[in-house]
Amino acid sequence: MHDPTPANTPTSADAPAPADTPTPADAPAPADAATSADTPAPADTPGNAPAPENARTPPAAAGCPAHGAARQRPPALFDPRFAADPYPAYAWLREHAPVHRTTLPSGVEAWLVTRYPDARQALADARLSKSPHHHREQGAHGKGKVGIPGERSANLMTHLLNIDPPDHTRLRRLVSKAFTPRRVAAFAPRVRELADGLIDGFAARGTADLIHEFAFPLPIYAICDMLGVPSRDQEDFRSWAGMMIHQPGSPRGGVGRAVKRMRGYLSELIESKRAGLADGAPGDDLISGLIRASDHGEHLTGEEAAAMAFILLFAGFETTVNLIGNGTYALLRHPAQRARLQQAVTGNAGTAGTDGRTDAFLETAVEELLRYDGPVELATWRFATEPLTLGGQRIAAGDPVLVVLAAADRDPAKFPEPDVLDLTRTDNQHLGYGHGIHYCLGAPLARLEGRTAFAALFGRLPDLRLDADPDELRWRGGLIMRGLRTLPVAFTPHGGSTSV
Q1: Could you tell me which CATH class the domain 15-490 is placed in?
Q2: Please, which residues have CB within 8 angstroms of residue 350's CB and are 6 or more apart in sequence?
Q3: How much is the pTM?
Q4: Which of 447, 330, 434 shows the shortest CA–CA distance to 381?
Q5: At 208, is the secondary structure helix, strand, or coil?
């Protein structure tokens, strides 16, 4: 999947949602930062303010000489205001310090890359390794300052987010044999069935928290089904996943425990499926596909299989939680764009239905939502294997480099009117799912789930509306991932299911 992750290490705060805010590169990455307290939302700012629907955000004032030298200081990063709306700070960095060295809340020093050309170069640069072994601060990974918390102690290091060629090439090729576009396409009816079932659970009530009741469970159940996790065990996965991203009600400090429990379960499941295949069981799930791929001339060790299943599962849900949550919030805050999508999924007569044009519009809309306020704020960790120059800055061997996807995807040098949400934007080569050999393996599944979720929500709940003051919303602060903690909505209550 892509470059995302769990909310893991100390960073910014759970902060109120901005007025207008809105996958996987080999798999989603861990949100490597801890959170602080809920705090009041910032004033409306460029990127996230309820401006006129298609008004262009004015240029950052930081570049205006009239504001004096004080305006040339770098903006505060990783505080509660930043968590609520990082885009003004990223705009300043793009203009004044496009490759910027900073100290993260964990104490680790890293380079932030914010301009599109530099970001694209860094994502594909072989001199930037994915392996934490190249980090000059060797103890940082063991202390959970980089990477997914608990992955080392749970013996889950050998996955696509942590390795380079040739091991990366071999593992990705094996996983690609099982995780095929055909398998994803065949899974579409099941994703729609899951989406409708979740909406059925709250449709008669007239209110819902779309994060807890829809955006969070949909990708968990979907990836569990695809991997072949029995339905009787899927609630355990929902609980472990909630611990990993600090869902309300989850115990604090449970990330490491959740990772270990998930790893133990997956090891047992893999051995059970391996035995079943040996006895002639059909095994048409993804884990069985991984086992078969490893038994035909190539090889996945038990440790590699468990690590791959773990990262596919973990990568397969948090990015989609945020895609659905951020995307729905953005649509509710941009009524003209929401009306375009709703028209596409309901048609002139107001009845649910899809055709080729609807599918094409949904595809374009999802790409724009990924660009505008995507689920992955920063790509996962990279480490310089030798001295190199990036964006005019000299980076020493061993230095961590973090590509800020959220900043690159609003670079005005690449995207006209980047702070405007335009669901018809066609020239949209965003970096939300990465670039290069670590491009998100799970991107087709994430896109399918996003299209299905938006079609189901706005097709079945045509008067869906925000049921909270935007200033009261809280964001899950994290270094890698960014998404809403809750999304209260209201709509006209109704029963029954309608297929879109």
Answers
A1: mainly alpha
A2: 462
A3: 0.82
A4: 434
A5: strand
